[in-house]
Amino acid sequence: MNIVMLGPPGSGKGTQAQYLVKRFGLVHISTGDLFREILKNPDHPLYQEVRVVNEGKLVSDDVTNRVVENAIEKLKDSKGIIFDGYPRTISQAQALDRMMSSVNMKVDVVLDLNVTQEVILYRLLGRRICPNCRKIYHVNDGYTQCPDCKVPLRVRDDDNEETIVKRLKEYNEWAAHLKDYYSKSNSVYISLTIDDVSKTSQEVQEEVIQEFSKRGLV
Ligand SMILES: [Zn+2]
Hints:
Helix content is 45%, strand content 15%. By secondary structure, the protein is α/β, with parallel strands linked by helices. The protein has a single domain (3-115, 169-214), classed as 3-Layer(aba) Sandwich (Rossmann fold), CATH 3.40.50.300. The strands form two sheets. It has a five-stranded parallel β-sheet with strand order 2-3-1-4-7, with helices on both faces. A two-stranded antiparallel sheet has the order 5-6. Strand 5 and strand 6 form a beta hairpin. Helix 4 (61-74) packs parallel to helix 5 (90-102) and helix 6 (117-125) crosses helix 7. It is globular, with a radius of gyration of 18 Å. Zinc ion is lined by residues 130, 132-133, 135, 146, 148-149. Zinc ion binds at residues 130, 132-133, 135, 146, 148-149.
């Protein structure tokens, strides 16, 4: 089963992807990880094209597609792939469809974690990080210092309301095109609305599995 994950920053998409990886034996593909892997190897054929990342620039659609294609070819005998952070544009989504069909695979499911702005702000504004071990806590956990390292927890610089709202707006703009594209495609489109701040990632995981089960996917 191949899955495309959609969800704004702070939606817990990465955590849900990890659950699905374990549950279904899938391979997780994130373009960020693929770029980092290439940057470790100056002899990689796409090294020069990907290097722009280090200058804070975006890698072009074409190069991103080639990087993903390279990864898919190595995974054609896997149980399935979960895409996280890709595709981001219609042209990437179309390219992904072509790449998948060339290895006799397809995007079976699109999982859209539709987390409300209120919940995202609650999660991210309450987020505290240990500067030592990088473990993340929430103010409601009641810690002022890391229980492991005994150093004061901090707020990350980009966890402020203005930055978060800006990132959400950017996400909503590009994701709208993809939601439209995938809702008209042959992929099973599952949208889960999360509007309750007290809902745990475990509970979301259970709902995801229920949705899969309703559609005969598990
Ligand atoms: Zn720590």
